[in-house]
Automatic annotation (TrEMBL):
It holds the Pfam family GGACT. GO terms for molecular function: transferase activity. Keywords: Transferase. InterPro entries: AIG2-like_dom, GGCT-like, GGCT-like_sf. It comes from Flavobacterium araucananum. Signal peptide: none annotated. Residues 4-104 form the Gamma-glutamylcyclotransferase AIG2-like domain. This is Gamma-glutamylcyclotransferase. CDD domains: GGCT_like.
Amino acid sequence: MEQFFSYGTLRSKEIQMRVLNKILTGTPDHLISYKLKDLKIEEEFGMADYHVAIASENPADSIKGTVFKISNDDLAKIDLFESNAYKRVQVTLKSGIVAWIYIENK
């Protein structure tokens, strides 16, 4: 099992059903020393507004989200779902849990 931290669309039960064909159960957590940046992504029907996590030099910055336990197969499905504007990296959350997140792909 893997730990996955979501601060955006993958917290939605509707998106979870569409991507993973199941509803995940998670725990609230925080990503410290990161902040959200606005991001426009071209989708099938035009541009859509999203957010992307970026590192911050300010340790007071944090992102609220949810940490989920998921399978490697689920992680692969999420990789396919995420835009190439994002890249997956491992971080340590406020709770001490090491989890995968998607950050800005520079």
